[in-house]
Amino acid sequence: MIPHDWIEAAGERLRGRVIHTPVTFDEALGCYLKWENQQQTGSFKLRGALNKVLTLQPWEREQGLVAASAGNHGQGVAVAARLMGLKAIVFAAEHAVPAKLEAMRALGAEVRLVPGGYEQAEKTGIQFAAEQGMTWISPYNDGQVIAGQATVGVELLQDIPAEDLEAVVVPVGGGGLIAGIGLALQQIPGGHRPRLIGVQSEASPYFHALLKDGSQDGVVETDSLADGLAGRVEDNAITIPMVRSLVDDILLVREVEIEQAVAAAWQRYGAVIEGSAAVVLAAALAGKFSQRPAALVISGGNIQPQLHEQLVQRWSRGEGTSG
Fold it and tell me: Residue 290: CB partners within 8 Å, gap ≥ 6?
């Protein structure tokens, strides 16, 4: 496990560099919402990427940074690289969200597109970093990245009394965010720990399979609106044993439920959220967990604007079906 002093150090390191994002309460839903879509770069991913880069040795920084990303982690790496005056190369799937690709480029990263999905981009990035002698910045398989993400949980517990929470519900891709939040929850005094629940799309249920079946082999992935949660988890990732020990359950939501949640966030809160963040709201709206009050971590808001408009219009008109 990652030492708690790493999380405390990450909090100090990131203070003034990231936003302490707000928490609101939806009384009808019985849920608090932690708005990481209001973070710089529009996603929690900045926390882990920046914390990692700030902990690198000078020689590691000078080698330049390499990452793979659906877009949000890459933006975090790009911000960190610009802050430190470093070169950053980000590998991304050729069908990644255009707005996310442009955001990475605008922040100064060199973006290289890879045929296939996130899994192929990650493999290509790892191999490139090794061959070129550059520093690989994983979005989840790294202790300092996880320590940075854990600051989301630390803030949550600063803003909501632990005794008021029955569950914390978190999107799951590679497991870095939920592992970090799990470590933060371990520090609650007095023995009351909310249930820690992860949510994925049925279209990319890799961690669900790891938790339920013990293996992600045989998982068939299809396209998902929750693009930031897609892709196989790196073999032997440190998040795998952490999630198994810290997380109580991982739920699955359907693509139509994610669409409805994106629209609902706009209609209920005036909030723009991406599919990867919407999975937790989808699970709450669909009643997939009973614990209340619960805290939903709304992890990001980087959705293609035209797609967001389409989803809001579709579900405000009652098109489609939830059946």
Answer: none
Name the pTM for this structure.
Answer: 0.96
CA–CA distance, 152 with 181 (Å, rounded to integer): 7
Residue ending a domain, among 136, 155, 182, is 136
Say how far residue 296 (Cα) sits from the centre of its chain. Answer: 12
Nearest of 194, 212, 111, 119 to residue 157 by alpha carbon: 194
Q: Note the pLDDT tens digit of each residue in 41-93.
A: 999 999 999 999 999 999 999 999 999 999 999 999 999 999 999 999 999 99
Q: Domain span at residue 124? A: 46-136
Under a CB-based contact definition with an 8 Å cutoff, are residues 169 and 197 in contact?
Answer: yes
User: Which amino acid is present at 105?
Assistant: R
What is the spatial distance between Cα 262 and Cα 277, in angstroms, rounded to a whole number? 8
Q: DSSP assignment of 219-256, as one string?
A: ------S-GGG-SPPPTT-THHHHHHHH-SEEEEE-HH
Residue 142's nearest CA partner among 113, 112, 179 is: 179
3-state secondary structure of 184: helix
Decide which of 136, 169, 198 is a domain's last residue: 136
Per DSSP, 94 falls in state T
Find the farthest-apart pair of alpha carbons in the chain and give their distance in angstroms, rounded: 56
Dist CA 186 CA 170 (whole Å): 16
